[in-house]
Design goal:
With 402 residues, the protein is an alpha/beta fold. The chain is built from 18 helices and eight strands.
């Protein structure tokens, strides 16, 4: 057997993770023996994205506002200047301009959704977006089960109670699934079945809409990300190496809900804990939680059991979701025992979503959070990442053009 990763560590000049938390996991767990041999070989180089494409190109209206308030366009090349937006976070004039730009971007997505899916959604609802590769560890399943719980609650309430408890939301999904990845395809099928039921329920109206955007690609992302208000980065802690879409969303003034995983950890540090919705188990707890499950000691939250029962009742059509729901049950075995801890994090997730609703009702507070996300995103420019690689790994100097 040839262990390629071990071979790379031995032969490589440097070894790095792409976010601080995973660089630590590499040192403490994955390659601990090698780290003890060559500690200086191990580094961290947190990923980045380019503000030229992910603000300037895809969000020209917000770009103009940033340039106006900073008094310069230098932020496009020197992303650190975005941090200066913090001094204007409570300015009412900036709030007005910021909200207009966000709504105009949302109107573009309203048209995109109508064109791609036929669904009509309200631009006045919160745009809650999860777009990324469909994979169990990224937990689109946790998101859609949270939506099912929300829908079930709404159905059990009067119209007045619904409007008092919930803010209107458009829950948008997008992403690719490998053709051979059966569970991913089940999740996509489930999302579209929930959408077909919820979106055609006259009792619910614009209070909740669910949309899966087909044929997701960069062009679709360039429309969705500027329009986003809440974005979900909810992977099982310890499983997302970094993520870069979380950086793109934050740059565009989107507030994140997520676990302490990948670059979420550093984004939360930069934008401020009060401007990030945190939930879920921590990375160092995951192995113990899986052992607890294997020992038959895990007791699921009654609301989680309630949601699975609701899905199995046929509320979302005739398709048999026994395999999908069954993957969240049992204590061990391949494709069972909820390896990605959806059930464990479910109560924490729905509690956090209640905090989201409460925060969104206070639009002054929400807009401030949005501005501070853009201001705190400066660290996540690929310029910074490339300079760190050049200086600390490649040992090369930049060539200055005459």
């Amino acid at each position: 057997m040839v262990r390629m990763a071990n071979l790379c560590v031995v032969g490589g000049h440097a070894v790095n993770g792409v976010a601080e938390i995973h660089s630590e996991i590499v040192k403490d767990e994955v390659f601990n023996d090698f780290y003890k041999l060559w500690p200086s070989k191990f580094q961290n180089k947190t990923n980045g994205v380019t503000p030229r494409r992910w603000i300037r190109f895809c969000n020209p209206e917000l770009s103009k506002i940033i340039t106006k308030w900073l008094g310069t366009e230098d932020w496009v090349l020197n992303t650190e200047k975005l941090g200066e937006l913090r001094q204007f976070a409570d300015n009412e004039d900036l709030h007005k301009e910021w909200k207009v730009a966000k709504r105009n971007n949302k109107l573009k997505v309203v048209s995109l959704i109508k064109e791609r899916t036929g669904y009509i959604v309200s631009p006045d609802a919160m745009f809650d977006i999860q777009v990324k590769r469909i994979h169990e560890y990224k937990r689109q399943l946790l998101n859609i089960l949270g939506i099912v719980y929300r829908y079930k609650q709404m159905k059990e309430m009067s119209a007045t109670e619904r409007e008092e408890k919930f803010v209107p939301r458009v829950c948008i999904f997008g992403g690719k699934a490998f053709a051979t990845y059966v569970q991913a395809k089940r999740i996509v099928k489930f999302i579209t079945d929930v959408a077909a039921t919820v979106n055609n329920d006259p009792d619910i109206g614009d209070l909740l809409k669910v949309v899966f955007i087909p044929d997701y690609n960069v062009s679709v992302a360039e429309a969705l990300i500027p329009a986003s208000e809440l974005s979900q980065h909810i992977s099982t802690a310890g499983m997302e190496a970094s993520g870069t879409s979380n950086m793109k969303f934050s740059m565009n003034g989107c507030v994140l809900i997520g676990t302490l995983d990948g670059a979420n950890v550093e984004i939360r540090q930069e934008v401020g804990e009060d401007n990030f919705f945190l939930f879920g188990a921590f990375a160092h707890e995951i192995a113990g939680l899986r052992k607890e499950r294997a020992a038959g000691k895990f007791v699921p939250d009654p609301r989680f059991e309630e949601v699975k029962k609701f899905v199995r009742s046929g509320a979302f059509g005739t398709y048999n979701y026994g395999e999908l729901m069954g993957s969240l049950e049992g204590n061990e075995g391949f494709g069972r025992a909820d390896y990605f801890l959806v059930g464990k994090d479910f109560p924490s997730y729905i509690k956090c979503q209640e905090q989201v609703d409460k925060a969104y009702r206070d639009q002054k507070k929400w807009t401030r959070m949005s501005i501070l996300n853009t201001a705190g995103s400066y660290k996540f420019s690929s310029d910074r990442t490339i300079h760190e690689y050049a200086k600390e790994i490649w040992s090369i100097e930049p060539v200055l053009l005459p």
